[in-house]
Amino acid sequence: MKTLIASIILVFCVNISINAQNNFGRNKIASDKEIYKCISLSPRTNTYILENVKNKLTNAKMIIPKNPEAGFSSIIGNELVDKTIVSIFQEIMTKEDILKMNHAKDRIIITFYINDSGKVLELGFLVSKNTSFKPQYLAKVEQRIKKEVTFSFASNELKGANFLRFNRIYRF
Fold first, then answer.
1. Do residues 109 and 125 lie in contact, with contact meaning Cβ atoms separated by under 8 Å?
2. Whole-model pTM?
3. Between the CA of residue 106 and those of 101, 131, 138, what are the distances in Å?
4. CA 51 to CA 44: how far, in whole Å?
5. Can you give the residue ranges of every domain in the chain?
6. Separation in Å, CA 65 to CA 13, 85, 96, 112
7. How many Å is the Cα radius of gyration of the chain?
8. SS3 122
């Protein structure tokens, strides 16, 4: 009987320890009032894709009517946009978590889904297994980026697209 109780306690403690190290090892994560899908990109790379379950553009096909061959070089990702996004992270995350990410040379890759006016429609996040970016930050970061960030274009070659998808890397 003692062995059984000790085994149950050991399994429970190991489970708590594993989950404490990995915030994103579950299929779905709650953040504020939002639910996010958590998809393991590869067990080898220990990275996860985090997307709001409400996202509809993830598997949709981009259609760019004017110039299907258009490069995304016409999307201007100026320093102001990057500074705005970094400041959003810094205002939402704790200083301790930001320092941990900086020390670990951790990064977050954001997939932006924007309309042809530059408005952010949806976001996806790519994070490492042991990142200091916690699930509680997801919804707040997503809402602020959607509200405060707008991209601009150097030309009209992407005008009329149903949406545009591209990635940007952020380090802290």
1. yes
2. 0.81
3. 5, 7, 16
4. 21
5. 24-171
6. 56, 30, 46, 20
7. 19
8. strand
